Structure to design on (754 residues):
DNA sequence: CTGAAAGCGCTAACAC
DNA sequence: GTGTTAGCGCTTTCAG
């Protein structure tokens, strides 16, 4: 069935196309009466204005591109959801593009986006500087980086792009304070290979700094409070080795920099006879939905993706209005759950220290409530 | 910076716009020489044709809508990924819309899609018949349903929409056969409330039928091999009750109809001192990425989302070409992992029965390889 | 308050 | 082979 056009409506309502247009947009001068009649006809004909034709004049396509590495990753899916809903509130459509961190695919996708004359873009920058994103920038399209700080490219271009990401400090500080209060003195960070990622490098650096605020938590034997794991996907051998190292160090609590490592190691720890939250306390970055579903539920340092989505959209809107916009770091938040308990052989931890933000057994609402992480009061 | 238009290119190349158009589309007669020159200029100007203007003629927008309940759900995210990549191979853009199973939101989103004159749509039908989707149908837009069979609405409209979904039979049959071979005789299905979902109802029905093929597996005490769980999100109490019921029944193996229930129950079972794969064998529907990461890894009945995406796209393409397209049910596949082991107190299960499709500790490749589930030879 | 007409960027006849 | 021209469906002056 062919689409009804504005002419069809005009004809049927006995008016001209410009009158219909005015009725559609509440613009210009139009009498209440004709407006109602036109609206009536629009209903009858199930007329939907062609947004393509429309946007060719307005210079606004009402569409925003969202470039992420992989939609299958829970974290990015949450982010996409949040961004999309926030944009929808502003009558903007989100074009979700999964670039797989592959430059060629990025090129194709950005080409598509340019062809549609998107009004703006929200981009998770890939590890290496991206020529595709530069193209957006050169075209003068407002861009906001999200989640990762891009490696400063040699071209000054990216210099003026606002970044919205998470500051690991607040979350790590609370987590370490809580672990300390629970009597833990030997806390180990488990991180991925640091070369790959600024994010991981920063977490590591901040972890060390925050740990050093407690003199009794420094480890006299090992200078190095962190353990690096390669990217080999969770070999059992690797996790077994990990368990051995922890035992040798006398570690009573671990913080995982990458949620995936935490998931993989969990079973190994339990298989080794450790009860998580009793024999070993465990905290992971990223508040994945699954972490609150598992038993024991896993304490996390939340990146607050919902807020990140909302804030990045707000930043983009500002840019789109031609206003200035600055980079912003969101606080991470420590959420205590069952996986953290008092250190074995310690009398501490019966009560949490005042001021520690703790949500015992915090549960995440999954359906329908974007903000339902329970983080915000 | 303003976009370069086809006129800019024409002017600069010293030709007319139609010549540029021909160079762009390799259509009509054009000399090699001028074509190269035009291409040259296009490069220089970084010219990108305006797909909106373009599509106003061709009657094709090269865009397809994908309507899913929630992108945050791993299962749908996987599906979206698969669909999007498959469509991209055919130079079609995917407009991912998360409808939250809310009719009003569906209305808005479908309105947007109509406004863009999408060439087709792939839709996960919501439990109740959707007026929004009917609107697409009335407009004559090719639609394919995916994953769920829609409740037959009173309007004949939806009758002619092909459905691509998963047939639980093959997977359940293999799973039950494997469990039987492992010595399990008391197998229980754990399902959600059946009223909500045709899918769950069917799984339940097929489970009973497949179970009855083994005379020694029927349960003399309980007529009812299934346990229904409400939707209360994983209350500890509920899971504890579940454990008690299983013990009382003498169940040695469980099959979860909903992956979420499996995740929630896992910890409770382990907390009760059961070793999964030894004291209790466990199979879940849906091959979520996490299931292969956990220790023990979880045996699953895979819906083969990758294939489902590919097949639904193929079906849609057929429809878009005006050809007939039929509904299709994909086989589900049982993938054995560590969570299934021999029944306690049974001598069986040392070897798997011949012909049973088994992938011990099957691991899912997450990055970069759409087809990397390891299901396809 | 309403209508006629120009044009957004592109494609597709039709001429030359 | 290439240029001219008429639209696609809409918004937006500019007259009435």
């Amino acid at each position: 069935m062919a689409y009804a056009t504005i002419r069809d409506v005009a004809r049927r309502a006995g008016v001209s196309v410009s009158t219909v247009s005015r009725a559609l947009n509440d613009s210009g001068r139009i009498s209440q009466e004709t407006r109602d009649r036109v609206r009536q006809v629009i209903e009858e004909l199930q007329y939907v204005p062609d947004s393509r034709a429309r946007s060719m004049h307005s210079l606004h396509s009402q569409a925003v591109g969202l470039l992420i590495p992989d939609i299958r990753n829970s974290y990015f899916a949450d982010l996409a959801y949040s961004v999309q809903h926030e944009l929808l509130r502003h009558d903007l459509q989100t074009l979700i593009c999964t670039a797989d961190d592959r430059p060629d695919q990025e090129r194709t996708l950005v080409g598509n986006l340019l062809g549609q004359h998107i009004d703006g873009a929200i981009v998770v920058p890939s590890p290496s500087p991206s020529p595709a994103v530069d193209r957006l920038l050169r075209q003068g399209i407002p861009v906001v980086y999200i989640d990762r700080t891009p490696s400063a490219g040699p071209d000054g271009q990216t210099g003026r792009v606002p970044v919205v990401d998470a500051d690991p400090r607040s979350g790590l500080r609370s987590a370490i304070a809580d672990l300390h209060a629970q009597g833990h003195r030997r806390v180990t960070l488990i991180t991925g290979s640091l070369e790959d990622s600024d994010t991981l490098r920063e977490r590591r650096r901040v972890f060390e700094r925050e740990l050093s605020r407690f003199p009794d938590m420094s480890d006299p034997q090992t200078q190095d409070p962190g353990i690096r794991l390669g990217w080999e996907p969770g070999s059992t051998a690797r996790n077994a080795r990990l368990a051995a190292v922890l035992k040798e160090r006398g570690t009573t609590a671990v913080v995982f920099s990458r949620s995936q490592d935490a998931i993989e190691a969990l079973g190994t720890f339990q298989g080794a006879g450790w009860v998580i939250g009793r024999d070993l306390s465990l905290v992971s970055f990223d508040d994945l939905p699954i972490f609150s579903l598992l038993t024991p539920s896993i304490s996390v340092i939340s990146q607050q993706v919902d807020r990140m989505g909302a804030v990045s959209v707000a930043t983009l809107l500002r840019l789109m209005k031609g206003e200035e916009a600055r980079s912003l770091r969101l606080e991470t938040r420590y959420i205590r759950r069952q996986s953290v308990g008092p250190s074995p052989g310690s009398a501490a931890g019966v009560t949490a220290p005042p001021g520690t933000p703790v949500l015992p057994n915090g549960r995440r609402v999954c359906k329908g409530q974007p903000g339902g992480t329970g983080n915000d009061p």
About this structure: The longest helix of chain B spans residues 74-89. DSSP finds 13 helices and twelve strands in chain B. The CA atoms of residues 22 and 28 of chain B lie 6 Å apart. Chain B touches chain A through 65 residues (CB under 8 Å).
